[in-house]
Amino acid sequence: MNRSTLIRKLQDHQNLQWDVIVIGGGATGLGTALDAVTRGYKTLLLEKSDFSKGTSSRSTKLVHGGVRYLAQGNILLVTEALHERGRMLKNAPHLTENQEFVIPVYTLWDVILYTVGLKFYDLLSGRLSLGRSYFISRSKAIARLPLLKADGLKGGIVYHDGQFDDSRMAIKIANACADNGGIVLNYFEVTGLLKNEKGRIEGVSATDLETGIKYNLRSKLLINATGVFADAIHRMDDPSSKPTIRPSQGVHIVLDKSFLQSSSAIMIPKTDDGRVLFAIPWYDRVVVGTTDTPLDTITSEPKALEEEISFIIRNAGKYLTKPPSRDDALCIFAGLRPLAADPDNPSATKEVSRRHKITLSSSGLLSIIGGKWTSYRRMAEETINRGIKAGLLEKRDCITKNFRFYSDNTKPRSERLRIYGDKAGEIERMIDEKPALGDLLDSRLPYTKAEIIWICRNEMPGTLEDMLARRTRALFLDTRASAEIAPEVADIMSGELKTDDAWKERQLNEYKQLISNYL
Ligand SMILES: Cc1cc2nc3c(=O)[nH]c(=O)nc-3n(C[C@H](O)[C@H](O)[C@H](O)COP(=O)(O)OP(=O)(O)OC[C@H]3O[C@@H](n4cnc5c(N)ncnc54)[C@H](O)[C@@H]3O)c2cc1C
User: Fold this and answer.
1) Residue 108 — pLDDT band, cuts 50, 70, 90?
2) Ligand 1: which residue has its CA nearest to atom 9?
3) Whose CA is nearest to atom 21 of ligand 1?
4) Based on CB atoms within 10 Å of each CB, which residue in 49, 219, 487, 488 is the most buried?
5) What is the mean pLDDT of the chain?
6) Do residues 315 and 291 make contact, with C-beta atoms less than 8 angstroms apart?
7) DSSP string, 48-90
8) Pocket test for ligand 1, best of 44, 59, 84, 97 (most atoms within 8 A of CB)
9) How far, in Å, from the CA of 28 to the mean position of ligand 1?
């Protein structure tokens, strides 16, 4: 992916009609663009910020059916997600893991409830199961989770779900779109919709935020995949449209791995207010969360509330013999769930369906909202099928069920480079030629100079934040350490992207301001 090349390609196509334009470069939009481009449709995706800057880089990092949705009796949602979970682990093995979870149980009733519930969860995943669930004794639960409080513990239920790196998966999908002939552009904002004299949507007006150049771009099908921002696009279509999104904030705290000391994750099915809490190993850290706080403000940079932080710390402390404090947090991050609400019956987020919703407006705007990262592929398939059903596209079959993001199964020399899939060899060759490029930028973070250079050349980072938050996960793994490497990374980026010193200074200032949100 090279932004200048893609912009030139866009300019060459400016007078052409696209088959599909997708607004929004999160999981939903990127998945939809990939579905469209692999069916052979001429496809353009426009993202106003960076790919996955919104909710899609702020998830719990689970590829899961959702045990708690099963408890709510949402069998359709869980079954669909379990099948997609299996596909994602097969198609992107370099970005996903089969993760073992243990639910600690303290009463006989819980032993029965969770054993039976998780057997059903196994059953629903069918041939795409990641491993069976089973009960383990108290001593075995403590052997697996040495820091779990043992008072009153009856044992544990072991089950399997998937885990992944959300923003690297997003970048991989963006790359796959471009490799298959699509155009995917970050920092390109849709500011209005184009309509014909009959009021039918014909395309978008959009601005390249790097140059300020405005474009009118035409398409047969326009897809609104803007997550929590979907209603802003609905209002461009119909200023009197009712709200369809009920945003709900979820917060996570990242801790050092010494707080868990295990490769198994903990799932607490019922905290003091009835929510689920996870403590999951991730890149040598532990991610603990999450919360579910209805909010009225929609922003690209949500901030954890003090009560959400204390909720997580208090509840983690109830189960761990080494209780974390706020000062132990390496990073605190918040994300907004784009829950689909009933416009005529807005209700609390816990009752709002977690399943996605596809709508087609009378002027032809196709919107896809809600859902989960895990189900992004199926949501995309249904969205494009809906466009075909509406007669906006000629019929072509979906091929993403077995679309492989990792074609070559050679293992990189270093496990750390596995996330680059079949491109890891390119980074290894850079290090072979210049061994100093293989030095870690900081002992607390798993990234080298070679990766920063390779990412600049291949993954379209526009800002220092893109590099530290989403191409690498430095911001999320250790916010303070990421701030310490920021000047060196900005230097490398500036050299690679051929920018001036003023760019570097601006990036460092903006990054300094950003990190206060994560501490
Ligand atoms: C706390 C939390 C934990 C979660 N954990 C999990 C999990 O573990 N597993 C799971 O499967 N799911 C999880 N989810 C759900 C999942 O993360 C979301 O469903 C998914 O990321 C939503 O993706 P999206 O593309 O719809 O939205 P977003 O990622 O927000 O993407 C929308 C994009 O549209 C862009 N945009 C907006 N307006 C415009 C415009 N005018 N022009 C161009 N672009 C525009 C935005 O910049 C944004 O990047 C979690 C969600 C939250 C909040």
Assistant:
1) very high
2) 62
3) 56
4) 219
5) 94
6) no
7) SSSTT-SGGGSS--EE---HHHHHTT-HHHHHHHHHHHHHHHH
8) 59
9) 7
SS3 at position 456 = helix
Q: Is the pLDDT of residue 354 over 80?
A: no
pLDDT at site 346: 57
Distance 16 CA to ligand 1 centre (A): 30
State how beta strands 155-164 and 183-185 pair: unpaired
What atom in ligand 1 is closest to the CA of residue 250? 1
Is the minimum distance from the CB of 355 to ligand 1 under 6 angstroms? no
Please identify, by atom number, the ligand 1 atom nearest to the C-alpha of residue 233: 41
* Burial group, residue 476, by CB count within 10 angstroms (0-12, 13-18, 19+): buried
- Report the candidate in 476, 48, 419 with the shortest Cα–Cα distance to residue 227: 48
User: 197-203 contacts: CB < 8 A, separation 24 or more?
Assistant: 199/362, 199/363, 200/363, 200/364, 201/237, 201/361, 201/363, 201/364, 201/365, 203/17, 203/18, 203/21
Distance 260 CA to ligand 1 centre (A): 28
User: Considering only CA atoms, which of 399, 446, 459, 428 is closest in space to residue 186?
Assistant: 459
- Whether ligand 1 lies within 6 angstroms of the CB of 340 is answered as no
Q: What confidence category does residue 250 fall into, taking pLDDT thresholds of 50, 70 and 90?
A: very high
| Pairwise CA distance, residues 475 & 481, whole Å | 8
Return d(Cα 433, Cα 460) in angstroms, integer: 24
113 Cα: distance to centroid of ligand 1 (angstroms): 32
pLDDT confidence of residue 74: 86
pLDDT-based confidence at residue 413 (cuts at 50, 70, 90): confident
> By the 8 A CB rule, do 340 and 353 touch?
yes
What pLDDT score does 326 carry? 95
Between strands 183-185 and 43-46, the pairing is parallel
Determine which residue's CA is closest to atom 2 belonging to ligand 1: 59
335 CB near ligand 1 (under 6 Å): yes
In the predicted model, what is the mean pLDDT of residues 44-59?
Answer: 98
Residue whose CB lies within 8 A of the most ligand 1 atoms, among 47, 51, 55, for a mutation test:
55
Q: Cα angle vertex 283, ends 281, 286, to 5°?
A: 35
Radius of gyration of the chain (CA): 23
Q: Which ligand 1 atom sits nearest the alpha carbon of residue 191?
A: 41
Phi, psi for residue 413 in degrees, rounded to 5: -60, -35
CA-nearest of 433, 365, 372, 406 to 221 is 365
pLDDT in tens, 418-469: 999 999 999 999 999 999 999 999 999 999 999 999 999 999 999 999 999 9
